[in-house]
Amino acid sequence: MMRLELVKRPQRSALFSMLSPFIAFALTIIAGAIMFGLLGVNPLNAFRIYFIEPVSQVWQLHELAIKAAPLILIAVGLSVCYKANIWNIGAEGQFIFGAIFGSIIPVLFPQFDGPLVLPLMLLLGMVGGAAYAAIPALLKTRFSTNEILTSLMLVYVAQLFLDWLVRGPWRDPQGHGFPQTIQFSDAATLPQLMPDAGRANWGFVFALVAAVLVWILMGRMLKGFEVRVLGSSPRAGRFAGFGLNRMVFFAFLLSGALAGLAGISEVSGAIGQLQPVISPGYGFTAIIVAFLGRLNPLGIIAAGLVLALTYLGGEAVQSALGISDKVARVFQGMLLFFVLGCDTLIHYRIRVIGLALTKKEGAGKLEAAPKLKEAR
Amino acid sequence: MGGTVSADHDGTNLLEVRGLTKIFGTLTACDHIDLNIAKGEIHALLGENGAGKSTLVKMLFGSLEPNAGEIFWNGQPVRITSPGAAKKLGIGMVFQHFSLFEALTAAENIALSLDDGSPISSIAAKARALSYSYGLPLDPESLVGDLSVGERQRIEIIRCLLQTPQLIILDEPTSVLTPQEADKLFETLERLRAEGKSILYISHRLEEVKRICDRATVLRHGKLVGHCNPREETAASLARMMVGNEVQAVVRAPVEGIETAAPLLEIRGLSRKPATPFSIPLKNISLNVRAGEVIGIAGVAGNGQGEFFESVSGEVQQQDAASVRIRGKDAGGLTITGRRLLGAAFVPEERLGHGAAPRMKLSENLLLSRHATDGKAFVGAGGMVKGAAVYAASQRIIEVMDVRKSAPDPEAAALSGGNLQKFIVGRELDRRPSVMVVNQPTWGVDAGAAAHIRQALIELSRSGSAVLVISQDLDELFEISDAIAVMHNGELSKPMPIAEATFEKVGLLMGGAEPGHAEHTMETA
Questions:
Q1: How far A367 CA sits from the closest chain B CA (Å)?
Q2: Which of A220, A229, A372 is the closest to B368 by Cβ?
Q3: What is the 3-state secondary structure (H, E, C) of A136-173?
Q4: Which of A167, B102, B404, B416 could be A179's S-S partner, Cβ–Cβ 3.0 to 4.6 Å?
Q5: What is the pLDDT of residues A93-146, one digit of tens each?
């Protein structure tokens, strides 16, 4: 009989805190090699196809940017929530509502044209995401509900609402019954950055700008200080005069707006119309991105690119090796698992306790201790 | 002072420590400390805050690992790797801050820490027997939330005794007790000593140490100053060993014409319903604090002081805006920020997690309470924090208050309690507030730092501010107050001018004598 205990370390290592994402990545690669081996594929060949081939040409880098943009945008917003100790798990729903709100103009007013269309769409997308995020915030501040549950459950509401919209009222009448809206006009389409080189659109620029702005907010501004104080010690935050309820709204609205911006950017940039499914789980994968990036907006840029690669790699191994693209989900899950594991082991160490032993073993066992040497 | 007294009382030493060293970054918190504790002695560990007492004790109790040095237990070298290992050896510890669940009974709390699966009823019976045999009566069935601080401490002591330790470490045990409760505790300690148990007694109350301790080990700045017999020393000579020079006595000049000064802080009929089942309701509290005076509020812990502080500071707001007035303006409806902007400053009882955010740097903790009042100096256009200005101000406070630290701008949690308190008080004094409300200004703070803080509060009042001090330490209140009021069960007595106040009168009110019945009450209005 034995039992495992987590014992808090007296000091945490700054070096390993920094290395943690890299160690997690290395462990993911090792576990991934074993997985490929068990699937009967040569791991080296599989890794080449998974991680290297998808980024070996310029147009592929553009695809990477397309996948990374929503992940970074959403994760940057989530990092603010998580720093404030507020657990918004519903970014996927906020992403969808951003897409729906932003699509109001091109779907319902397709004749409205001009340079104002796109900015209005983006703005409406942010409003939609923020409004949808305001629901769990309101429930939390008013009724003390757990935001993890409410925000998560609202994801399914959003998915089903979108599904109903594109099959019902918003369906393209000339679409041969396909569940989708009309194609957005040019004025309602997010322009590509370098149309000659690849498909990447302005969404990636939005993501980088948002990351830098939030980095400044969190590190240099009083509001970011407020977030960090309330997240780490709420009582000291109250003493400072910061309101916890206001913070719940601030964090939810900000992360909701960014998720909404990601949603409308995806629809008007990469897809071009609303469909029943517009996201391969960006809102959930962004949670991994946020933690892999150490909740630091600049780290999140790098983490977003890594996770985007897992999506592309999943498609690549599916077409090249005939392995299910669910492999991507497995890699994402392993990454989160190892990151959280590494973080836990930085703060705690594991102690194995034999239950049978502790009863008999008295003080005697402890006395056989080596002399401590002068530490240099 | 001086020479090493070898432990020749009872022959062998129970615990011997040789050259124990602990290094945090660039700070050597304990530098080659030697300590011998004989069987059946009460051994005092003396030192200012930051002297290394807590670090040393944490190494003895296994919660910190030494960088160098040896520990011998009954002559055998040992490594104490965890508190569990310390308990197995026979070392028990009673902490300054209790770790008890308020919603559980005393017996349930004890059972949780024993963790050996014995039924609650047998633990309760054992605890009851033990408590009576040591003169610490305790009802194991009572809810911790209903118990006084003194009674809670008894639970901790009995929890420790149930593990039949040979060495008991007590960290500042009397800081939460009334004089009568402390006397009871000393009897218990003497009984334990008579049974051959050893006690390591950490305190900065020199009179106590002289009274009950057989030997003392004095630390200063992480180094061993020496061992001595406290009975042969005077309080002044002990203090000199601790501080390195004479502790300056606090000087309080009498104030003239205070009756005509304007009240800067007025509390009128303040009442508050209990927020939780364990908090105390406030009942119709009225008090004026005038420019130039220090008013002290005495009382046993848990009689509503915390609730009162929250209400005055604005962490909890009042329905009746006129129930708290600051500089002649109704402040009852204002937040803590609004009250600060009227010129008030606040220092709460708990340092970590309330007065300061533990994982944040000192400069960030400066911003914590001053982001609004010093908005122009510390926050620039668009809400950008002026990092350099905040850092410079925090360094100024560190210098003025003589805060000792291991890095230029360390996290608050890295400072010893006394040094952090100096910073937190200094942070508010630096503003020259017109109203200062302090809860337990020197709780767990050493003599040198406490004198510094008290003198600073008096000087603030003499420069024309109103100072309100809530404290459990009667010596402190008598030292600094111009008048003392007593809080008992959520009610506040009328302030007694210091010339008429005696320990006995205040003690009676603390014990619950009717507030109105104090003999020489002074009408402040």
A1: 5
A2: A229
A3: HHHHHHHHCCCHHHHHHHHHHHHHHHHHHHHHCCCCCC
A4: A167
A5: 999 999 999 999 999 998 888 899 999 999 999 999 999 999 999 999 999 999
